[in-house]
Specification:
The structure is a homodimer. By secondary structure, chain A is mainly alpha-helical. Chain A is built from nine helices and no strands. The first copy, chain A, binds a DNA duplex (18 and 18 nucleotides) through helix 3.
Chain lengths: ~210, ~210
Amino acid sequence: MTKPSTTHRILDAAEQLFAEHGYHPTSLRAITTAAEVNLAAVNYHFGSKKELVKAVMQRRLVPLNKLRMRLLMEVEEKAKQQKCLPDVRELIAAFIRPTIAFRNSSQGARNFIILVSRSLSEPDATVRSVFLEQVEPLFAKLFGLLNQSLPHLTKEVVYLRLLFLLGSLNHTMHMVDKVKPPFPEAAPEALDSVLEEEFLAFATSGMKA
Amino acid sequence: MTKPSTTHRILDAAEQLFAEHGYHPTSLRAITTAAEVNLAAVNYHFGSKKELVKAVMQRRLVPLNKLRMRLLMEVEEKAKQQKCLPDVRELIAAFIRPTIAFRNSSQGARNFIILVSRSLSEPDATVRSVFLEQVEPLFAKLFGLLNQSLPHLTKEVVYLRLLFLLGSLNHTMHMVDKVKPPFPEAAPEALDSVLEEEFLAFATSGMKA
DNA sequence: GTCTATACGATGATAGAC
DNA sequence: GTCTATCATCGTATAGAC
C-alpha cells in the first residue's frame, strides 16, 4: 500500500471540502493544504478548479450509473421474458436503490451525493451539465420504460412526473441529514430501508396516479 | 414616481445577478455597478454580502408565506364547518398554487424562485436558514393538517412524504425552465395549469399511498 | 513528467475623508 | 449617505527546480 497519488489525494480532499463548504467558497489553497500538495498541482493535473469538480463528480458517477443502467435493463429483460409490461415500482426501485445504498457506503460517497444534489441547482452551466450529461442516457431509458408501463398516460405527463420524482430523490438525498424531524428519530441503520420503502410507495403511487 | 431608493435598487440588482450567476460568483462590484451605486453602499445599508442575500429573500418570502398560510387556514376552517377532515388535495393546492402563480408574476419573482430553490442546497447554514426559518410555521401547519387528514399513516411517514413533496416542488420550480422535454412543448401560458394539475395528481396520490 | 515558488489581477470587506 | 484608498485572499498562470 503506497501513498496515494497526488491526483487521488486532491480528489479526496476536494470531494470533502466541496461537500462541506460548497464549490465557490472552497479555495484551491484549502484543498491543496488538506491534500498536502502544492497549490499549483491542481492546475497542473486538472487544468482549473472547474475541471477539478468535474473530475470529482465523474469518478463516482460513472460506476453508479452503470449499475443503475444494468438494473433497469434487468427489469426490462424480465418483463420481455414474461411477456408483460415492466413493473413501475421495480423500475423506480432500480433507479433509486443504488443511490440510497451508495450514499451510505462511505463518508466519501455521502459527500459525493451532497455535491451532486447541489450541482443540479448550480448556476454555472458547465458544472451542472456534468451531472446532466452523465444521467441523460439513464433518464432516457427510464423514461422509455415508464412510457411502456403507463400506456394510459401521455408522454408529457410521464415526463413531468419523472421530473417530480427526480426532485424528490435529489432533495431527500441531501436533506435527510439536515432536517430534524419533529419526533424521536428511528435507529439510523433502519432509516435506509424505511426511506426506500416510503419513497417507493410515494413515487409509484404518484407516477401511476 | 421618484427614483427608487438606493436600497431598493441594490435589492433588485442583487436579485437578478444572484439568480443568474449564483451567490458567491456575483461580486459586490457587479451589483453596485448594475444598481448604479457606490461599492461601499452595500456594506452601509445591509452590513455584508450575506445580509444582502437574506434581505433579497425576505422581501418576497414574507408576503408569499402569508398568503400560503391564509389559504391553509381557509381549508382548515372549511373542514371544521363541514365537520369533516381537511381534503389532502386542497391542502397541497393551498401550499403550491401561490408558488406557481407567483413564479410567473414577474421576472423578479422568477429570479427569486431560482434563488430560494438554490438556497435549500446552500452549504452556508446562515443563508439556508433564512428560508427554513421563514417556512417553518407554514411547514408545521401543513404537517399538522396532513396528519389530521391521513389518520391511517404514522407521523413519521407523513413527515417523510412531506419531505418528498417539498423536494418535488422545489426541484420543479427551478428546473422546469432549464430542461428541454423530449417532445414539442405546449403553449407556455398553458404550462402553469398543466403543471399545477399534474403536480397535484402526483403529490396527492403519493401522499395518500 | 512532477512539482515548487512566485506573481498578477480581482474579490469581500473596512476605515476615514467629505 | 457617499466616496476613495487599502488590505488580505482568491483563481490562475508560468518559470524553473528536480
